[in-house]
Design brief:
Largest sheet: none
Strand content: under 5%
Number of strands: 0
Helix content: over 70%
Structural class: mainly alpha
Radius of gyration: 26 Å
Number of helices: 12
Shape: elongated
Length: about 350
């Protein structure tokens, strides 16, 4: 008899912990299921996956509990919404760019910051390496490129490298190469974030050495102006792609309360959303490099304007908007939590 009482008490405590850990999320789902048509299909699918997992756990351990009844009702309603066969609305395109991508960035802001930190650290490593060894530029950039750039500097056109080939050829070549780097950064996350970090490290060292090389030859101002016309977007996409790779890799390393495979699938979807937002920016950066950067005769005001507009876009879309979307979702969750305690 004493053993039965002990087991009963243990079961109650386990149910209490289970509810406490998940009640805020369930309240949030209940609120959002009041108007499920306003949610993106991917979001509904993720909610369904999580609820079915919660329901399976609850049925196993608390089959007669009211929380099991509640989870069953929510899962049933969500199942009907997902499989009702209604056509996806065109508004999904809008919500994807204005809500889903910013939310994915906000939810994974630590991974984004980690990618930025890796890039900055190894950018400085590239500069320090060139300071310590004058031949480091040849090691990382190649003899041909270094000799050509030195010759261009002597001729008074330090960034003439951007004038090589036709505009269309430059655009296509740069675009394909940069998209390849983006895909590599993201896909390497399958093998944990460390593989992605290696790609960021190599490219950051190259950027640091490349930029400081012009400083050593006294043409840093002109070179920086040319580089940052396209580099503001290009470098940003490199960091964002690296962050997406970190997101994917974190699914393997830090599954939390999910199974490792489920955690990876969830994080892979979020990484893909970030990646889909990065690819168009990479294409625009390649267009600027292929068609605009080469024209050093363009007015200074125009060239600075390109840099400012590029920076403004990155700051708003990948910092400000994610913060606003994320805080709005957080405020709703806090309200639900407060209501649940009443």
């Amino acid at each position: 008899m004493q053993q039965k009482k002990s087991n009963s008490f243990s079961n109650v405590m386990r149910e209490s912990v289970f509810i406490k850990q998940n009640i805020v999320r369930w309240r949030d789902y209940q609120r959002r299921l009041e108007n499920p048509s306003g949610e993106a299909p991917d979001t509904l699918a993720q909610m369904y996956t999580e609820l079915t997992s919660d329901l399976a756990f609850s049925r196993t351990h608390f089959p007669d509990s009211t929380i099991t009844v509640m989870l069953n009702a929510m899962t049933f309603k969500l199942h009907n919404e997902i499989y009702s066969g209604h056509q996806e609305k065109w508004s999904r395109l809008l919500t994807f760019w204005t809500r889903e991508v910013p939310q994915a960035v906000y939810d994974n802001r630590k991974s984004m910051l980690a990618a930025l930190a890796v890039f900055v650290v190894f950018l400085l490593v590239g500069i320090a390496s060139l300071l310590n060894d004058a031949d480091f530029a040849r090691l990382i950039l190649g003899d041909y490129y270094v000799d050509m750039t030195i010759e261009n500097i002597k001729n008074g056109v330090p960034t003439d490298v951007y004038s090589q080939g036709s505009e269309a050829e430059s655009f296509m070549g740069i675009m394909l190469n940069n998209l390849r780097v983006d895909v590599l950064c993201i896909s390497m996350g399958i093998f944990t974030p460390f593989a992605t970090a290696l790609i960021i490290m190599y490219n950051a060292i190259m950027v640091g050495a490349f930029t400081f090389f012009f400083y050593q030859y006294g043409v840093f101002g002109e070179a920086l102006l040319a580089i940052m016309q396209h580099g503001t977007l290009e470098i940003s996409t490199m960091v964002l792609s690296g962050g997406a790779g970190f997101v994917m890799g974190s699914g393997w390393l830090f599954p939390g309360t999910y199974s490792r495979m489920l955690s990876f699938r969830r994080k892979a979807k979020e990484a893909l959303k970030i990646a889909l937002s990065v690819f168009p920016v990479t294409i625009v950066a390649a267009f600027i490099e292929g068609y605009l950067t080469r024209h050093t005769e363009f007015p200074l005001t125009f060239r600075v304007l390109v840099i400012v507009l590029s920076a403004a876009f990155i700051i708003y879309y990948y910092i400000v908007l994610p913060y606003l979307v994320g805080r709005k979702r957080h405020s709703s969750s806090v309200t639900d939590e407060q209501q649940s305690t009443l």
